[in-house]
Every structure is written in C-alpha cells, then in structure tokens.
Amino acid sequence: MAKLQQLHDSTPIPSDANTFLSVAANPDIKYRPMPDPLSVYVPLRSLDEKTVNSIVATLSSSERKDWHFGRRTLLAFLLAIRNQLDQIEKSKDLKTEFDEQIIQHASVVRTWLVEKDASGDFKELPWRELEEKYKKMMLEADNGMAEVFGINLHTIEPYYELTIPDLHADVIQSREYMSCFRSYGWDPKELKLYWNAQQLEDLCSTEEVLNEEGGIDITSEQTNEKKIRPYDPSDEDAVQTLRKYPVSERNHAVKITYVHDGIEKAVFDVPEDAQIIVLNFANERSPGGGYLRHAWAQEEIILYNSDGYRSLLDLKYGRMGGGYAIPEFGAAYVRDMRFFDKSLDKIRAVDMLVSACYCLTGTTQLYDNPRTIPELIANTVEKFRAFIMAAVANTKGDGSNTYLLLGPIGTGAFGNETKDIGYAFREVLSSQMMGSKGKPLLDSSLDLNEVVYHNEPSKIYLGSPSIVRLSSGRLVASHDFFGPGYASQPRNASVYISDDEGQNWVFNSYIKYSYWTTLAVYKDMIYAIGTDSDENANIRIHRSSDQGASWNYNGNDNGIILFRGSYATGPTPIVIADQVMYRAIEAWAAPSRWPNNFQAAIISCNLTKSSSTINDDDDPLMSPGNWRITPPMTFNNSWIPKTFPNITQPGYLEGNVVVATSPSKQLRIYNILRFNSAPLANLAIVLELEQTTNTLSFVSIISFPGGMTKFTIRYDPVLEAYFAFVNPVTQNYYPTQRNILSLSYSKDLLDWKIAADSLLYDDTGFTVNDSLRYTGFHYVDWQFDNLSSSAPNRNASCIEWNCDGGPDMIYLVRTSYRGANSFHNSNRITYKTLKNYRALIKDDSKAKSWIR
C-alpha cells in the first residue's frame, strides 16, 4: 500500500522524543513515562453528586478482577478530589485566594464524599483505608486481560498489548497502521477526558477577557476565574473555538443522513476537506473491548481499520496513569485518528468519541446498571448528552463542515434495545446545550421548551409536574411516572434544573419515595411534599439544601413520614397564611375506588417558632409533631343539586388550599377541589376549614372552567384576583377534554372568567375527535414570576398567600402531544412563560364569563 509506505517514511517525531521509553519486546514502540495517577485533572466546579456517587459506588464493588486497573483509576480520581478539597479548605489559613463560588461548591462536594453503613446511615469515607488500598493496588500486576493472554505478571510492562503474539490478521494489520503514523503515540493534548456533561457546558464562558492587544485572552493560566472558568489544558483548542464560534452562532446544517455502508466505509464518503467525528460505543473498562480477541462489534471494527487502538492505550498509560475507566456519565475524545482503506489506498483523518452504554447482557462491567427503567433511561440520556456535547465542543470552525458519524444505531450497545438507543439519540439531539438557541420542539408552533420526553411504546408516562424558582434564579422542576411499563418500579420523583430561564433542562436528582409531589421554597430550602406511593401511601416530606442536587436530611435521603395511612393527592399548592403552612391532601378509603372513596383533608404546620434560618436541628417542617391533619371528609351525594343529570362516578380530588379575607379582614381558608362530574363538566367543589376546630365543611358547587381536570389556584394581591390554568371543556359530549389550556381568574372565587382562552391548543392537524383522544395540556403547575429582574438574587417563588410574585407566570405542563397514545398518557413535560398576564384583564369588561 503506497500510502502506508509514505507514512513509514515520514512518521513525525515529537520534539521531546529523547524522554520517551521503549517497549522491551519491540523497541520501535515508544511511549512517554507514565504520570502520577493522582495528578489527574479534577474539574471541581463541574462535579455533581451523581458523578461522585458513581465513583464511590464502583469502589464499593466486590468484584475480584480489576480489568485494566479501572477501579484503581477511579480511586486515584477520588483521592485527587479529596486532595483538591483539602487544598481549598487550607487556603483560609494560608490566606490563599480562591473564588468564592468554588469555595462554596467545594463544601458541597465534601458532603457527597460519604458511604452508607449497614444500617443505611451515611458516614464519611474511610480515607486512611482508601489510601492504603490505593498503595496496595499500585503494587499489583494487571491480573485481568494480561492473565487471559498468558502474560508473565512479573515481567509485564506498559503497552504489552501491542506485543501479544499470534493474534488475528486484522489485529496485526491495525498494528501496522499504528506504526505508520503513531509509533510515538498521541500527544496528551490530543486526548481529552470528560467526567460529565457539566464539564463541557463549563467550557462555554459567559464573559470574555480582552488582552492588551484587544484580542480575547483565554489561556489556561488565566487567573480571573470569574471571567474564565478553569479547564483541562487539553481543551485549550476547544475553548478558543467556542469563543470564536459560539454554539448559538454556528452554521450546522442540522441534517441527518442514513448510509448503508459500515462505519469503516462511511468515513470515506464524507467530503475530503471535512472534519469527521466518529462515535465509538466502547467498553468502559477495557481498551478496545474484544479487539485482542477479534470480536466484531462497532468498537472493534473501528479499531481494525484505523490506528485508534494506540490512542486508547495512550489514554490508559497516559491520561489515566496506567489504568482504564471511561467515566460513567462522561466520555473520552481523541484528536486526529487515521482510518485506512487498503483496497482504495486511502487514508482519512478522523476524531473519535469514546463512550459506553450500560451492559444489559449480564456480563459484569465497571459500573453497576441502574436498578429501575426510568433511571436507566435518564442515565443513558445523560451519557449521550455528554458525548454529543464533546462533539460540539471539539467541532472545528463554525460547524458548517463537520460530520458526526454515529454508526449503526444500537450496534455496540451491549444488549440495549435498538429503539431505546434511538429514542435516547432523539431526546439529546433535539435538546439545547452549550448556549444553543432555538425551540427543542421543532415540529411545534407552540413555543414550548421540553423538559423531558419519554418514548410511547415503553408504556411509561410522565405525570405530576411541579416547578419553583430559587433565589439564585435557577428553575427546579419535578415529575413522576405512571403506566403499565412502570408498574413494578420504585415511586421516585425526577428533578430537573435550568439555569437559563427554562431554555435547557438537565436531570439533577431523584427524590426517593416521592409521588404526586409539590415543590415549595421556604427560607432558601426546597421542600417536596406528597405521598410515597400511588397506593396505600403515607404523606411524606423531603428537603434539599443544595438547590435540588440532593435530598438528604439527618443522614439519609428517605424523607420524613408526616402521616401514615392511605393517601392520594396531586401537585397542588403549598400556602402560608398567618405563619401556618397548609396543603390539601385526600385520604383514600377502602375499597379505594376512584374517585368515589377520596376524602378531602388539609394538613398544616405552625411556623411561629421557626427561626430565621433553617438547620437540621431546628426545622419545624421536618418534625411530624408540628403537623396536624383535618378529619377526612367523605364526598356526600346529597350536595349534588337534583336538577343535575345522573353523575356516573361522583367524587372530588386534588384540592387547592386558597386563602381569602372576610369583610372583617379575618382570613378564611378554603379547599377548592376538582369535581368528577361527568357527564357534566366545568364544575368545582368548595369546602371551608374551620380553623378553631380544624374541620372541613361543605360550602357549594361552583361553575369553574376545567373543573373536571386538576388545576392550581394562586392569588395576585396587585389585581386582588385569583388565577388558575385550566382545561375548559368546549365539547360537551367529551367531559374529559384536555386539548386546550386557558388562563382563568376570579375576584371572589365564585365568578370565574377566561382571560386567555387558548394559551396552548392542538396544532397537529388532527380532526376534532382525534385531538380530544390524543392531545392534552394538563396538570399544570405554575408560579408568579418576574423574568425581567436583573438582580443577582431575585425573589424565589413565593408561598405566602398574598405576596406579589411578579408580572409574569412560569408554568410546567404534563403534555400529551405529537406521539402520545392518548390524551391521558403524557409523553412529555414542557415549560413555558406567560409575560405580563395582568394586561390580559386590564379591562375587566373584555374578559369572558364562563357559563356552565
């Protein structure tokens, strides 16, 4: 092959070649001395609890063999994190200046460095024991892959993999490719290691620093951390490009093309002057997977036809200090690999993404598989998001001449369902990242931002949305799951965050034993109050002190049971009035028929003894003894007027605590509930709380647009009006209609009017009846908000019943839309804002009265 001979004759020699070592079995193979594994770069600002937990959990594994020292590599990284935290904490005594944000984040990271003991309580990691374990590991010979190939463990040396004899011709041929162009291997700056998607997101700075010549100064030695975030030196080129070509201004064609050739052929079909990035679905603990055994999956095919195997060994013996572990939620990135085609005598330069799927074949891997289907889906999306972001970060120029080859979807995915891998790609490729602009739902005219999507064939659906804004400006959203596909799964709520006004959403945490949950902010803590299941459920409260990243309280993340029994609810308002916190709930009496056996109740907590700040020892909300509950009130059929037609399944549920003032200025507490009134619709039931006796009494049935579906009522003191997002029933023959979302309001809680009748509507082109069957914008949770605020610490979402939350509204929607198999079985959670809602009812006479 002529091209190979030319490369042999012109192999580049590094300037520091005199420092290289040689492999004894083949002196032509050169390599740099291995670095100290503890010198690994730690992206401390980017670390999250999930990444840290992944490392700690893997090190707790009892697997005997440590293939390619993967666990040793993770232990080195964990010790490096600890060392950096120690340095930051000592800086206070040494008066060394660190950015205040990194100091605060370091203190949070320290709280994650824990493990559970036998009783389930958290305790600090045994650092001395881990240090001894690491020293012992450093003295051990490789007892995994080397042992399989009969390598003498006493004489083993780095890069022994390149000298194993009697391997398949494809492996020998690829060694020839390596010797042509990479006999000295890869420069460390050509090999990148990312621990999670946030590390890549943080490469995009929001501010730029001008140097003396007026250009952008972004060297990795930059000391102004408020302007430029620290980054791995290998990302110097990526940072430069992201400054010059921000993702929001790039010229990607956003075009997907299907090709029928294998990936080793497809690279030669791309225009010769283009940048090519190839995805390698890799083995997370073994460089090349089954390459040495001549396996025939995607990773191996890539390596047989390229010099890429050497890059993986350079990751192992270089960047990773002699071990190999692709981060569970991250990826590796290789610059300037070469593909070879002997038949065409062609060579193509290619970059390679290295990422791993979970192994569902039963074969033990480095990381444990998620235990639940929703967790598997969320984690897989998080993995995919990281490697797609790595491709974005390392794109050359403005992206107009970059091709990303994903390979056959599902190939190399370790037993994952092909369709599930496809859905993960769909979710990630349609999401926003790294400052990108545009609507995630590109096939919609409704200007919705998608928080999360779930594929319909799984029969797992998304429910119970709840949303709050924190004083930092961060948006925090939660939801749970339902449906036949979720029947055997734990009842945990998923938490997503957005730091860019809802444009991009990132999975942040789970809330264990949490269902039908409402989020609320009180004294800079986030509280989640709901039940712990969807049957035979207790009322449970959780708390987060770190902006939703974790939900630990007093050493565990199980939350606190407030009341035991059988309860049901929805994400309905948490309200404070006269220093008492209220939330509506329903007891679900046997035989648990829906909704006939729901019994209305209100739980409440006296806050008069609450201090100005919250801590674990003095948090009244986390003490069950501070809470009380009203006696559950059974629905009474005698309340139904005799003029009504026969109501097939009368009952009420998902009540709203609403506060009003009497003529004497005394506060009155109401519970306004959804009324299951089919064949009628647009009705609600009003109960009142007698505060002295803590009992409920019936007030009336009122006309209420959308009263057949869950709603949330909040009060605006500026307009002295109550508001609710509702699903008005406009087709009388379909009382469960949810395909229209409107904004309603009332001055007196009795006379409800429509201020905006079609905030969301079906734009799919369905017929009326199909739209009723398949489209729903429902279960909306929302908050008053002020998006125009430029203050660094804007107001958090307010739960005082009469506070002025701002002139805008933010709302989170359980969405059945474009692919849902019914209006009820929601396939998305979406987010939107409504600006200047008060202008909608400036002239009260123009609002439409809603007549039942």
UniProtKB/TrEMBL annotation:
It comes from the Eukaryota. SUPFAM superfamilies: Sialidases (SSF50939). Residues 197-314 form the Microbial-type PARG catalytic domain. Gene3D superfamilies: 2.120.10.10, Leucine Aminopeptidase, subunit E, domain 1. InterPro entries: Macro_dom-like (IPR043472), PARG_cat_microbial (IPR019261), Sialidase_sf (IPR036278). Coiled coil: none annotated. This is Microbial-type PARG catalytic domain-containing protein.
